Amino acid sequence: MKTTIRFLIILLCLSSARLSAQQDISWTSGRFKILSSNKTITVFDSTTPLVKIFSINFNFAAPKSMVLGKSTNLSLFLILTYPAETQYREQSEELSATIEISVLNNALRFRSSPEWASNVTIQLEDGGEHYFGILEPLYPNNQKSPDLRGEVVDVDVLGDGNWYHENYASTWSAFYMTNKGYASFFDSFSMGKYKLGINGKTELYHRTGQLDWYIIAGKDGDEIMRQYYEIIGKPKFVPMWGVGPIGWRDQNNGGKDEILSDIQHMTDLQIPFTGWFVDRPYSHGTHEWSKMDFAEKFANPKEWIGTIRTKYGMEFMTWVTSATFGDNDFPGMLPSQEGYFDLTNPEAMKEFKRRLTEFQYSVGVKGHKIDRADQLFPQMYPWYDKTPVYERRNKYVFLLSKTIDDFLREVHQDDQMNFARAAFHRCQPFLSAVWGGDSRSSWDGMAANLANAVRCSYMGFPVWGSDVGGYLSGRIPEDLYARWLQFGAWCAFYEIKIDDAGGKREDRVPWKYSQRLQNIFKDCNTQRMELQPYLYSLINTSFKNGVVMKPLAYVFPNDQNTYNLWNEYMLGNAFLIAPILDSTNSRTVYLPKGTWYDYYNTGKVYTGGQEFTVTQPLERIPVFIKMNSMYVTGMMLTGNSKLWNNKQNKKELNLFVYPGASGKNATFEYVDYYDMNKEKTFILESKERTVDISLPALSTDVLVSVRIEKKPVSVTINGKKVDFSWDPHLKKAVLRIGKNVSRTITVLR
């Protein structure tokens, strides 16, 4: 009898264990809802399913059971049991891991740190998603489409020369977004491998036992990026001079005299610039860099850098890296071909800072082009801080961006910038811009760089630019040069290379080209100067308004026609930019649903949701303006144009307004450069009979242009009727308002 009772008790316990292992769990917090059944987890955004998690595996083993630990309004704890053999050395009993699920505004965070784990794999159901982000190189097979569905992707900064058509495009991130209203972010520097939408599953693997994974919900890219930046930090502030045109040579054989001569030549041609930089070689030591000072050809740097600033109104930057190329007179060296040093070694950091501060910042250097860190990196040699080997490649590029920003910030605060070719997630708060590697100077080189830009934007790098004209050649055909200048001028970061790689062949300074090309060069740089307040505002509000160069699937995630698009993008929410990528002067442009206007003739209207063939002369790049948007122009910082521009003291903002259909509203976040960089919101409200534009007090006069189908019946400011002019061809009403007073402009249709 006792034996029978004991058997029944054991049977009851086993049954209870099975019930516990299979219990259903329901939990709601904020906008998210979790339903768990039979070891799977389904995540909902309100009532909309986002993603189904098949399994969270440690050391490649799936859990045997999953039960509820505890739950609060803020957190849900799940206890997962794994087979004993999951721990390689000791296999005596089953293992457990507690996963905490918590909500951070629009993100759901999964965390777990089992001491016995060294690998984590997340298996998701394939819901037909399209995947965008993860890496800048054109993987696979030089594919320009950003859609990575069906691909296997390494999450590891693998700088490998011309492995792909673009040389050293080296930005990676454990972040991707989808067309299904969510993004995935695994917050770790550990190397990973993602299998995206293959055989009914998506699999996210990282070489770490620490699970720190976010599902970020959002209706579009901007909403997703707002939450992403709350997690990783606000993107770095970029000064106004960093927004304008920046020039450079790869090889300054003529030293400081050549730099000053180039700037004077540009000034003689009335081609505006706000910055310039010198690339290596310019120092003493190995590779004419390792001492990090200015060699004899660049003697008296304080004097000539001062001339660049005071005479020409421009700022100056230099090339830097964290390698000495075989010069061992530096602490904390990591044995390697490139001669990298350990960025976690205090003595190495002390010496790096000393050299840059003493030899460069003290003479007026305001920023840096950050090179290498991705190339021939010695992953296996131990670091001072004992960073695990599988985190080192990705963490190193992050540390280099942060280190350089720390050095610059201590001297120049926000009045500095840095840009790099190698980057990883979490660099954004410390890196002003990413540039697209050492591109080929060809039509396909420019096209590949545009595809790189789109991928970087999907990863949440808000500011991107290319070596205009390409890196790997000298003189290039005029039409290619013109088209690349136009593309560059409408990028978030604009830098122009005027010679060959290493200065080997004939350079491509504009004065060696035709008058037509010189005029295009001047027009592109002047256009860029006029875009300063728009780009400055977009860049420095990216933490809440998203990346500057917005891919079309980022803005229109429900439009399946956008998923493979790589050759056009939105610049902010006003412009659609479609660079011409061959010598034909024509291209096909897809305009998403809605109403669009021709930038050069706003009387011309396009109905979206279809493709158009557009033709533009060599002097113009196809640009379209979205209905229900606003943008601003005006030369805030004159640079070298102060030497010829008679309007340099006339600080005026131009506001262009494109009302939407009745009931539609729009805003523009303006950063007022002349009012301590205060963020000020412009509000556009479109109604059946009226258009209302609410403007806060601004530090400059404003010329307002409102695109409207027919001449307005009247225009009032704060209820008082005012005069305006009317352009029947461009269909614009134009009026001027003064500064320092808040106003509401009402246009009666």
List the helices and strands and how they pair.
Blueprint: H1 2-21, E1 25-29, E2 32-37, E3 40-45, E4 48-58, E5 65-71, E6 75-82, E7 95-104, E8 107-112, E9 120-125, E10 131-135, E11 152-155, E12 170-178, E13 182-186, E14 192-198, E15 201-206, E16 211-217, H2 221-232, E17 246-249, H3 255-268, E18 275-278, H4 301-310, E19 315-320, H5 346-359, E20 367-370, H6 392-412, E21 417-420, E22 422-423, E23 433-435, H7 443-458, E24 464-465, E25 467-468, H8 478-489, E26 495-497, H9 515-530, H10 532-539, H11 542-545, E27 549-550, H12 552-555, E28 569-571, E29 575-577, E30 586-591, E31 595-598, E32 605-607, E33 610-615, E34 623-626, E35 629-633, E36 652-658, E37 665-672, E38 678-686, E39 690-695, E40 701-707, E41 714-717, E42 720-721, E43 725-727, E44 732-737, E45 743-748
Parallel strand pairs: 12-22, 17-18, 17-26, 18-19, 19-20, 20-21, 21-23, 23-24, 25-26, 36-40
Antiparallel strand pairs: 1-2, 2-3, 3-4, 4-9, 5-6, 6-7, 7-8, 8-16, 9-15, 10-12, 11-14, 12-13, 13-16, 14-15, 27-28, 28-29, 29-34, 30-33, 31-32, 31-34, 35-36, 37-38, 38-39, 39-45, 40-44, 41-42, 41-45, 43-44
Helix pairs in contact: 5-6, 8-9
